[in-house]
Amino acid sequence: MALEIPEVVINRLPVYARALSDLAANGTTVVSSQALGEMLDVTPAQIRKDLRYLGRVGKQGRGYHVPTLLATLRSILGIDRTWRVALVGVGRLGQAIAEYNGFAPQGFRIVAIFDSDPKVVGTTIAGVTVQEAAGLEDWLRSNPVDIGIVAVPASAAQEVVDRLVSGGVRAILNYAPMTPLVPPGVTIRHVDPVLAMQSMTFYIK
Amino acid sequence: MALEIPEVVINRLPVYARALSDLAANGTTVVSSQALGEMLDVTPAQIRKDLRYLGRVGKQGRGYHVPTLLATLRSILGIDRTWRVALVGVGRLGQAIAEYNGFAPQGFRIVAIFDSDPKVVGTTIAGVTVQEAAGLEDWLRSNPVDIGIVAVPASAAQEVVDRLVSGGVRAILNYAPMTPLVPPGVTIRHVDPVLAMQSMTFYIK
DNA sequence: GCCTGTGAAGGATTTCACAGCC
DNA sequence: GGCTGTGAAATCCTTCACAGGC
To answer: Is residue B155 a contact partner of residue B177, using CB atoms and an 8 Å limit?
Structure first.
């Protein structure tokens, strides 16, 4: 029964977790697939099928117990712990990422920042001293991190990804406007507002 | 033959367009589905099927003519023109978005910025004067925009979305950490690095 | 009665494999 | 010979509809 969870489902689970978190904060203790579906514009059947991957997590006739379900979800996604993150690139974008206060509350701790520009190396951003990018792999070997954030220009992104990977990083969040390749076993996600907009203009043109 | 293009395909087309743009910049004039697939880690068959939605855009035995294909792609996606964008919210995040210089080169022009904080209303960010958010709908009625960017706290996001929609906006880029609902006919995309990370931790835990 | 869990059906997407054109 | 276009097959994902537990 512990069958493989498909990637589409994995991508929806954090959305459910966030909604359940909001419900829990409101003091709601039980929710039906119907109600959750209305909050998120997802069909109830899909929610039930998705949640079924977590086990028998609902109660027939009642619905889902919010705190329990949330805990299960967080544990399966691995978001019930803290993760060490390294940020590479402190241009405008990297700076904004470093100072973004949405990561820490969710357990993502930026423990190191790298850049190749001598003008910023040695400065402190969000309490972290910027290190010379040339030392990235060495540093990673003695200070493993879980996730790498790439916020360098497109021309440097593939190299940075390669070096993160060879330093043992298996999850990469890519902000660069290109598609770096990663070997099997390494997960990469892209944050690209331009691509998002470009896929919307098709519908409004 | 002008069959409906599925949404999954629409989401991949901008990625192809970006890669073709890079190839064009390098002076490459012809590319095969195989080569393009290797650049992007996509199977050649998928690329051929996807591009087939644009028409008969390849030449058997040769491949795809980069400049022509790029032009077709841009025209079908609607990224060959400029789009008027309104940004709502100029906290840290909104500020970074306003100052991000990746939008303009792709034809996305932020023509107005709104916020409800009197402290920032009237100030100028990236050359645009911040207006009082209360006037959003009125302003939109006389100055239609194509896309709205929502960079307000989660608690205000649904209301902002509703007001953008009632002001005629049919495409929304949501940076708020919640899932606003939109009526049929309105397209919404989410930019959420936290959700992206939360879907990766599953694989590395 | 309400609502989950679930097989079956239906639909969508991806991959295969090769015919046909350059 | 190389590579697109493309039916057919395979796979994956979503929706339906209802049995069964609360």
So the answer is: no
Contacts of B64 (CB under 8 A, 6+ apart): B30, B31, B32, B33, B36, B51, B57, B58
* Distance, CA of B64 to CA of A169 (rounded, Å): 36
Note whether A199 contacts B39, CB cutoff 8 Å: no
Give the nucleotide at minimum CA-to-C1' distance from A31. Answer: C3
Nearest CA in chain A to B15: A195
Residue-wise pLDDT tens digits, B155-191: 999 999 999 999 999 999 999 999 999 999 999 999 9
pTM attached to this predicted model: 0.97
The pLDDT score that the predictor gives to residue B2 is 59
Task: Tell which residue, A82, A105, A97, A94, has the closest CA to residue A156.
Answer: A94
Query: Which of B99, B103, B201 lies nearest to residue A79, judging by beta carbons?
Result: B201
Name the residue in chain A with its Cα closest to that of B105: A194
Task: Outline where DSSP puts E strands in A151-186.
Answer: 171-174
Tokens representing residue A34 in the block: 């119907």
